[in-house]
Amino acid sequence: MSRSPLLSEYNRQRSDYACPLCGGHTYEGEPCGSCFLPFKVMESIRSRPDPPRFVVVLGPTGVGKTVYLGMLLDLLSRGVGGLRGLSRSPYSLSLHRNLILALERQRFPEKTPVETDRWNWLHCEILGPRGKGAADIVTPDVAGEAVMSEMENPGTNKTIRALIGRCAGMVVLVDLVEVVADGQSQELFAMQLISYLDALRPGRKKSRKLEVPVAVVFTKADLFEEWISDPELFARGNVSSLHAQCQARLEQCSFYCSGVAGSSAKLVDDSGQESLVPLRVEPRGIVEPFAWMVSKLG
Question: Which residue has the higher pLDDT, 128 or 125?
Answer without folding.
Answer: 125
